[in-house]
Amino acid sequence: MSTSAVEEEQRGAAVSTSAVEIQARTLAGYADASRLRQVQDRDWVLDQVTGAPETLIDLGSGIGQLLQEALERFPTLRRAVGLERSEHRIAEAAARLRPYGERAALHRADLTAPEPLPYRAEVITQTSVLHWLYPDEERIFAWAAAHLAPGGRFLLTTYHPARDEHGLGGEDELVRDALVALGTPEEEVPALFARGGVLPIATRTRTVEDLTALLGPHLAVAGHRERDAVVTVDSAARYEHFHAATFGDYYSRLVPEDRRAAFFRAVGESAWRRQQERGHVSHMPVRLWTLVAR
Ligand SMILES: C[S@@+](CC[C@H](N)C(=O)[O-])C[C@H]1O[C@@H](n2cnc3c(N)ncnc32)[C@H](O)[C@@H]1O
Q1: Residue 37: its pLDDT value, please?
Q2: Pairing of strands 148-159, 79-84
Q3: Ligand 1 neighbours (beta carbon < 6 A)
Q4: Which of 32-41, 184-193, 282-291 is predicted with the least confidence, judged by mean pLDDT?
Q5: pLDDT tens, 210-244?
Q6: Which of 62, 66, 165, 270 is deepest in the core (most CB within 10 A)?
């Protein structure tokens, strides 16, 4: 091979897409990754369902895990409907829900501009999704109020990480560590977020007070529960994959393409360091709201 061909090949290898980047792009591996945090919401939410629901709508249904569990738990359920934006996730959910035939339905939807459905539900659920709808969450509150059957309940989980003076907190902190490890001065991280159009997740996750005000015109709070969501890992690689499956390329676009594999690795290493120092990677309050239409 000529010198230039070798150089060409090396350049190609340097910018070729790593497995973790492909995972982030397609949000793959969520079934495994979600065991660290999101799956705990699923059972917590379904434990609140009473009676014999016939229709349940899950907003941001991901790979269909909550719908599957609901179909298993409630034989009365004739219609378990998922609304979801990611086509990769819909495809994975469709495969998971195929055994349930017409009892399950999936629709591609953008929850910041949700289309009406021709029926109402006794139960509407939304777990680990609301922060992605910021700053347009009120639209889904109005939609849910309009789609609850009489006496129906909207069961919603929201995360509330502490935030610093720049609005960073939760996952933003691990990303900050990773960016610093890759050479960005720590004090420049908030400006890098802003330049890259990445709104900190701790800013997207509004406070309980803000959410109460936002949902107030559409929904009344019938009750709430709170728990501390603790994330622990047994290796850096485990967290690297959790980050890619959960946050996709949301943060990784802050670094040039040829540094993205290193970025994901650095996020995993930052998590593993915290695990060893603190006995956990992170913890934050999660609220389960029981909401009814006004
Ligand atoms: C962290 S996952 C949660 C999935 C599932 N609810 C769970 O608890 O495991 C967030 C989900 O919300 C979806 N999502 C984010 N923004 C959305 C939007 N604007 N419209 C519809 N779905 C959206 C994502 O594609 C992803 O599947």
Answers
A1: 73
A2: unpaired
A3: 34, 38, 41, 60-62, 65, 84-86, 89, 109-112, 127-129, 132-133, 246
A4: 32-41
A5: 999 999 999 999 999 999 999 999 999 999 999 99
A6: 66
Residue 108: both structure tokens together: 């591609």
Q: What is the CA radius of gyration of the chain?
A: 20
> How confident is the model at residue 91, as a pLDDT?
97
Question: Of all atoms in ligand 1, which is nearest to the CA of residue 39?
Answer: 9
In this model, does residue 19 exceed pLDDT 90?
Answer: no
Q: Report the distance separating Cα 178 and Cα 156, nearest Å.
A: 31
Domain parsing of the chain, residue ranges: 19-293
Q: Which of 210, 287, 284 is nearest to 48 (CA)?
A: 287
Q: Which CATH architecture does the domain made up of 19-293 adopt?
A: 3-Layer(aba) Sandwich (3.40)
Pairwise CA distance, residues 47 & 15, whole Å: 47
Exposed/middle/buried for 53, CB within 10 Å: 0-12, 13-18, 19+?
buried
